[in-house]
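A reminder before we start the practical. When you read a complex entry, don't treat the lines as separate problems. The point of joint prediction is that each chain is placed relative to the others, so the output describes one connected object in space. Small molecules and nucleic acid strands, if listed, are placed in the same frame. In the example below there are six entries. Take a minute to note the order of the lines before looking further.
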Amino acid sequence: MFSINAKDSKAIYEQIIEQMKYHVAKGNLKEGDAIPSVRKLALEMNVTPGTVAKAYQELERQHVIETIRGKGTFIASKIEFKPNEDRLMEAKGKLQSIVLELKMMGYSDKDICGMVNNIYKELGQ
Amino acid sequence: MFSINAKDSKAIYEQIIEQMKYHVAKGNLKEGDAIPSVRKLALEMNVTPGTVAKAYQELERQHVIETIRGKGTFIASKIEFKPNEDRLMEAKGKLQSIVLELKMMGYSDKDICGMVNNIYKELGQ
Amino acid sequence: MFSINAKDSKAIYEQIIEQMKYHVAKGNLKEGDAIPSVRKLALEMNVTPGTVAKAYQELERQHVIETIRGKGTFIASKIEFKPNEDRLMEAKGKLQSIVLELKMMGYSDKDICGMVNNIYKELGQ
Amino acid sequence: MFSINAKDSKAIYEQIIEQMKYHVAKGNLKEGDAIPSVRKLALEMNVTPGTVAKAYQELERQHVIETIRGKGTFIASKIEFKPNEDRLMEAKGKLQSIVLELKMMGYSDKDICGMVNNIYKELGQ
DNA sequence: GTGGTCTAGACCACG
DNA sequence: GTGGTCTAGACCACT
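Here is the predicted structure of the whole assembly.
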């Protein structure tokens, strides 16, 4: 369910974050579902527990998962839809970057919207 | 014409690359236009020449600018519109990331297309 | 009467302690009132008895409750109002922390006193 | 300027966070001031760089400090006054806890406001 | 069992 | 020089 891509320049803990969100978006993981413990996932992925822990902490900050003391970690029961200002600004900045990039490659706004729609549908289950 | 934000988490050389592309996309810089020398731009931006040089190297690799020995550096006369497979895949990967991110924040596909259109329009012509 | 929030970062046994004090402050529980046995409360709250026992021990140490062997556990007949130096210093330290926190968020001393008054009133009588 | 208190149950990285805020509130550190590098502070305090780095990252998330790539870390030039919802709720929760605690010790609302004012003034330079 | 914290190293990209 | 990431261990409190 989780796997790291060594070729990806993205940090491992960021890959874990992204994959967790992917599985939630896709419906593979639903509200309240238990997710692997830090240690288990670390073993599975051949990384150290600290790396997984860092990912889990960030996911909790973003209200994607919730940890229950001594019990484990779970998909948040009420996935938060009010992004904080910072995260939204960051996301928009990244979007601007990538749109610029694609425009430079010759794609029109409609092309890009088409890509977005395809990606969105594929996620949307 | 160029301005960097030292606090931005993005590397300075990447900011230069992005701004150069921005000005090309926007039409501020046209094919064949001369651009500042590495040293001049470094002075202007108050960064070390090495940083500017790194940006220029990458821009040249992407066929956005061309260096003519002894003459200076110019916007490429034939800006490359057929991206190689690798860069397209990379761009799509980034786009998927950011769409996932925005979806998790509660935005619909239409919302995201709206953002894309706004960004695209702002990039000009 | 008691309810825990497993997602709270605060330890469950600390939540029990706090709620016990809350009910005493509020007047729901008066001196001499019987409180549930460890096992009963553990069942009610769906936690392990050890967790409740730990809370009761700490409450007893703070002279909020008293255990009478063979009879049960009761709200202390003479709730301790003269805190020892240590606990007062600890409390003041925590208060300083939180005031600093709120100041950094932009709240004035009056704002904070307002919050304190509201909380105090809500605690009742 | 910074020192850790081993007796304090608070995590070291949290102590660093609190002390940084303290120095900012107190005026010892002003907007734009450079703060020690991760490594230097780690040496000074006899902790590992990772611990300091964790504190710095959290401080940056809270807009108290800013890092400039390859240059170092600085007190934020525009200290952020819009707390996010989460942090405010957390702070209020802590305040409620401590007010309850102090009430149980016999302090009135006025007493507590007095303490708050004293603390605030002492910080306020 | 769980997550949270910490140590003592290491390598990397950036400037 | 800087901060960011990661490893491979360890100890702790909580359940």
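Discuss with your neighbour: The mean pLDDT of chain D is 92. What might explain this?
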